[in-house]
Amino acid sequence: MEHLRKFVKKLRHLLFGTYARGFISTYLLVMLIGTMLLKLPLSVQPGVDFAWIDAMFTAASALSVTGLTTIVVRDTFTIFGQTVLILIIQFGGIGLIMMIAMFWLVVRKRIGFKQRNMIMTDQNQLSRKGIVRFIRNVIIMIFFIEGVAFLMIGTYLFMAGYFPIDEAFFQAFFLTISLFTNAGFDIAPNNDSYMMFANDYFMQSIGMGLIFLGAVGFWVLAELKEWTLAKFSKKKYEFSLYVNIVVIMYLLLWIGGAIGIYMLEYDKFLSDKSIIEGIFYAMFMSITTRNAGFSTMDVNDFSSTTQVLLMGLMFIGASPNSVGGGIRTTTFLVIILSILSFARGHSDVLIKGRKIKDETIHKSFVTMIASASLVLFVLFLVSFFEPHSTSVLAFEVTSAFGTTGLSLGVTEELGSFSKLVISLLMFIGRMGVLALLLIFRPKEKKRGLVQYPETDIIVG
């Protein structure tokens, strides 16, 4: 009995010894529960062969709000199974720790120091200050946005004649959550993703709006609520520097990506399309690389050069503390500013007249290098076991890391080992590389008692 107690204590320390470990272990536990729920006979259509590895892959893809799938959701799952899947997506998109915090707020339970630290880790916050107000504002905004979008989409799908009223609102329920969380899952007939709305600019506009609000970051939503309240009470309110930077960076990548796609495909895929069609194709496909995974056309129809551009956008991903993955937009910005600062001979990296902390610059380069190394390592493993071309697999792996869900159509053909590796990559992409690295850090920093002499190494 004593040996069992010691084993449980060691296991608990291993899994929950630090906030980062507890954060990751909690998500892994939910992923396993999601796998079992999706494998229930009640969840699967009669006569459908749904293997455990596919259940785990689907649960990992849903929890990481990626959208890569080895099955056709509509043909595999019953209504119950589809509901389970969209609830996993909602949990994964909002953040499990945020959902738990929301429950604490509803039952009026005090959020303690430990719980605040877990929320801080989950949402990539810099401080515990104002964390409860932040959660409350974000949760209100999320359910307000999803509620309004659900009513608009459900009514439109019925009035426009896409579906009868009951299916129209279930489609709206599924689509709203999947779009806002940038999950990329759909239950459209014939597994059409967003292609059935390729010429429906109303649905595309709503889709892009939901993708933007989900991927731009929860801090933006929290301040948007404060700004709205200030407007109603006729008070002055200024968005923080961080929110301004995040929104501008997001818009620059979105618009820049759209321009790039339009120019590269002007005489190819878009050659027989009108200007309006071309703009909407480019805008939608650019924003979907922010981790949404929906598509209004087959990505295989794009040239290989455009596919490389999409891979770059997927690798960058969404904003921090949002529903998306990737290295994050602000990481990319800090790296670019650091390179420009070094090239100009400046000792400090500045933004809007303020110096970026050295630790932030260090974290950004660690994130970039660790992420690129991880993607290359997974690509190496998958390419060893799969017969597909390296370029096709590179697209699949980058999409998994960026939790995007775009695919060149090989996901269903992957072997069990590749599915397992890509499931882990989707999980890491959602958690963030920094969160993964933090599991190796002890609970308390060890202060060195010895000061070592400096040395120099030739680099570059």
Shape descriptor reads globular
Percent helix, as a range, is 55-70%
- For the CA atoms, what is the radius of gyration? 22 Å
- Give the biggest sheet: 2 strands, antiparallel
H/E order of the elements?
HHHHHHHHHHHHHHHEEHHHH
- Strand order in space, largest sheet: 1-2
Work out the helix count: 19
What number of structural domains do the residues give? 1
Low-confidence blocks of residues: none
**Taking all residues together, what is the mean pLDDT?**
84
Quote the beta fraction: under 5%
Topology:
Layout: H1 2-16, H2 19-39, H3 52-63, H4 73-76, H5 79-94, H6 96-106, H7 113-122, H8 131-159, H9 165-180, H10 201-215, H11 218-232, H12 241-265, H13 275-288, H14 304-316, H15 329-343, E1 350-351, E2 354-355, H16 358-385, H17 390-401, H18 416-431, H19 433-438
Antiparallel strand pairs: 1-2
Helix pairs in contact: 2-3, 2-7, 3-5, 3-18, 5-9, 6-7, 6-8, 8-9, 8-10, 8-11, 10-13, 12-13, 12-14, 14-17, 15-16, 16-17, 16-18
General description of the model:
- The chain is mainly alpha-helical and 460 residues long.
- It has one domain.
- Helix content is 64%, strand content 1%.
- It has 19 helices and two strands.
- The protein has helices at 2-16, 19-39, 52-63, 73-76, 79-94, 96-106, 113-122, 131-159, 165-180, 201-215, 218-232, 241-265, 275-288, 304-316, 329-343, 358-385, 390-401, 416-431, 433-438; strands at residues 350-351, 354-355.
- A two-stranded antiparallel ribbon has the order 1-2.
- Helix 2 crosses helix 7 (113-122) and helix 8 packs across helix 11.
- The longest helix is centred in the first third of the chain and has 29 residues, at 131-159.
- It is globular and about 75 Å long.
- The protein starts with a helix and ends in a 22-residue tail after the last helix.
- The model has no long low-confidence stretch (mean pLDDT 84).
